[in-house]
């Protein structure tokens, strides 16, 4: 069996501490342990001058290989092109996207550095799996340097509609570079189709009934391969002692009220402002029920080096303060807004204690929180998932209450409906959702992708 080389911006190999890590780290670590191989990427550290020195560590049967980057690379490649250009554009926010040549040049340069540094680690039979939008050109850079191994790419965020993508000055170069991969995976058919539209209309590509794209002499297998959560592990976490203790604490703190929970990285794509306003609409529209609910939003800060993220933090603090100021009473505060992260077992306990999981991103590649919320529920008394139609997860989870996250009224109506939902309907919906998240979990996702990659013929000499 081939070794696997995973390449991603950040390397977060699981350390064997059980529940402390996210599903992606757990899945990729498991894959690497099974097939042998290396996880390569940026260490997250800065160095004065890029040397290409690789720092190897071996943990729990997995080798990680990381490099430090120069300040200019971090500014232009990571904070710049990845987080200030591609992330907003791919989440349909061209109003926030910054198009600067220096960012594009730094992105390209850093990808070339990744390619040059990783090549000595690659053996002829290895399969290479590149992750996410930080690394679009990497496959092509490896090909230019003579790598003929199977190389796959998985995109964790949405692919934008053709018309939006054409606003990016480097769009065509980026998509042409993607043709260096053998397999390109997307979470949903919607993202795959948007990519196909661009390849057809702008590059003259042809896509056959098996989703094989042909452009010029290159053939690329496109697949829709939705990532899953570590459902069984998360369900077990929800029954762990710390989760139970958390459940009890949170439950007691709401004194008989229904808890509504949201957990998101602090990011404008997650629709937090719209969610707060939707919840406020519920309070206004339902004076009889308003004191029967409490909304807990957990939002650990992310990407603090980018100004937009500092702005959203201020906006949300202001909004939570205003809503609480206007609606709170002597013994009730409508929103608990918490700006910090918690261990996964604590999160699992919070999910289980919550009658509603409110997951309303404006745009999201998949959204794993939706799946984790389902996995953590008590089968005998499950809560209700309210999910944005614009999360990739909506394609697989029609039994959730699907809402348009831009509409405060729809969010408000869905909260009302979830609170009134009888137990038998809650159980029926949850059972179908749980079957889905269990069958199509993160291990299923990894296998589906690597099977597709191993099925492509090797690039000819
Ligand atoms: C990208 C795409 C796609 C959150 N707060 C805490 C915490 N988390 C964990 C969640 C979940 C993960 O972080 C977030 O994953 P999401 O999928 O919701 O979102 P992104 O970070 O934007 O991820 C997304 C994903 O890639 C995978 O392909 O689904 O669409 O945007 O696992 O539980 N974990 C801990 N404490 C927290 O406070 N421990």
Number of strands: 16
Task: State the helicity in percent bands.
Answer: 40-55%
Distance between the termini: 22 Å
Report the structural category. Answer: alpha/beta
CA radius of gyration: 22 Å
Mean of residue pLDDT?
94
Largest sheet: 10 strands, mixed
Beta-strand proportion: 15-25%
Oligomer: single chain
Strand order of the largest sheet: 3-4-2-1-5-6-7-10-9-8
The best one-word shape is globular
- Which cofactors or ions or other ligands sit in this model? GDP-alpha-D-glucose
Number of DSSP helical runs = 16
Low-confidence stretches: none
Description:
- With 461 residues, this protein is α/β, with parallel strands linked by helices.
- Helix content is 44%, strand content 19%.
- The protein has a ten-stranded mixed sheet with strand order 3-4-2-1-5-6-7-10-9-8, with helices on both faces. Strands 13-12-11-14-15-16 form a six-stranded parallel sheet, sandwiched between helices.
- α4 links the parallel β5 (127-131) and β6.
- The longest helix has 21 residues, at 307-327.
- The chain is globular.
- The protein starts with a strand and ends in a 6-residue tail after the last helix.
- The mean pLDDT is 94.
- GDP-alpha-D-glucose (GDG) binds at residues 22-24, 156-157, 227, 263, 265, 298, 300, 341-344, 347, 364-369, 372.
- The site of GDP-alpha-D-glucose (GDG) has 22 residues, from α1, α12 and α13.
How are the elements arranged and paired?
Elements: E1 4-10, H1 23-35, E2 37-47, E3 55-59, E4 62-70, H2 71-90, H3 101-118, E5 127-131, H4 138-144, E6 150-154, H5 162-165, H6 171-178, E7 183-186, H7 189-203, E8 206-207, E9 212-215, E10 218-224, H8 231-238, H9 241-253, E11 258-263, H10 272-285, E12 293-298, H11 307-327, E13 335-338, H12 344-353, E14 356-359, H13 368-375, E15 384-388, E16 401-403, H14 408-420, H15 423-439, H16 442-455
Parallel strand pairs: 1-2, 1-5, 2-4, 5-6, 6-7, 7-10, 11-12, 11-14, 12-13, 14-15, 15-16
Antiparallel strand pairs: 3-4, 8-9, 9-10
Helix pairs in contact: 1-16, 2-3, 3-4, 8-12, 9-12, 10-11, 10-14, 13-15
Bound molecules: GDP-alpha-D-glucose.
């Amino acid at each position: 069996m081939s070794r696997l080389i995973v390449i991603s911006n950040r390397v977060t190999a699981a350390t064997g501490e059980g529940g402390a890590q996210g599903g992606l780290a757990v899945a990729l670590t498991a894959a690497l342990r099974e097939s042998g191989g290396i996880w390569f990427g940026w260490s997250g550290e800065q160095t004065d001058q890029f040397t290409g020195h690789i720092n190897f560590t071996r943990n729990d049967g997995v080798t990680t290989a990381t490099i430090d980057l120069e300040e200019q690379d971090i500014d232009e490649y990571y904070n710049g092109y990845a987080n200030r250009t591609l992330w907003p554009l791919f989440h349909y926010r061209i109003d926030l996207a910054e198009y600067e040549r220096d960012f594009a040049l730094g992105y390209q340069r850093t990808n070339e550095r990744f390619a040059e540094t990783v090549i000595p680690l690659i053996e002829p039979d290895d399969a290479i799996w590149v992750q996410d939008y930080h690394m679009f050109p990497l496959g092509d850079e490896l090909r230019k340097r003579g790598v003929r191994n199977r190389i796959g790419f998985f995109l964790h965020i949405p692919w934008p509609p053709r018309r939006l993508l054409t606003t990016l000055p480097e769009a065509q170069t980026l998509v042409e570079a993607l043709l260096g991969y053998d397999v390109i995976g997307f979470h949903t058919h919607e993202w795959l189709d948007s990519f196909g539209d661009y390849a057809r209309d702008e590059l003259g590509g042809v896509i056959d009934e098996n989703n094989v794209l042909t452009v010029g002499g290159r053939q690329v297998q496109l697949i829709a391969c939705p990532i899953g959560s570590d459902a069984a592990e998360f369900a077990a976490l929800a029954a762990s002692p710390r989760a139970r203790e958390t459940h009890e604490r949170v439950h007691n703190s709401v004194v008989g009220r229904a808890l509504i929970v949201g957990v998101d990285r602090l990011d404008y794509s997650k629709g937090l402002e719209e969610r707060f306003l939707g919840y406020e609409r519920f309070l206004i529209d339902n004076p009889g029920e308003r004191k029967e609910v409490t909304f807990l939003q957990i939002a650990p800060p992310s990407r603090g080096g980018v100004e937009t993220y500092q702005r959203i933090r201020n906006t949300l603090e202001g909004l939570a303060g205003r809503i609480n100021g206007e609606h709170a009473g002597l013994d009730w505060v409508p929103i608990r807004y918490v700006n910090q992260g918690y261990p996964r077992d604590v999160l699992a306990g919070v999910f289980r204690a919550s009658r509603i999981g409110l997951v309303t991103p404006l745009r999201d590649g998949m959204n794993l929180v939706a799946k984790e919320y389902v996995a953590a529920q008590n089968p005998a008394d499950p809560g209700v998932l309210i999910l944005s139609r614009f999360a990739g997860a909506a394609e697989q989870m029609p039994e959730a209450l699907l809402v348009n996250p831009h509409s405060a009224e729809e969010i408000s109506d869905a909260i009302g409906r979830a609170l009134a939902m009888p137990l038998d309907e809650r159980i029926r919906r949850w059972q179908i959702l749980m079957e889905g998240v269990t069958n199509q979990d993160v291990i299923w996702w990894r296998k589906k992708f690597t099977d597709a990659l191993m099925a492509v013929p090797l690039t000819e000499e």
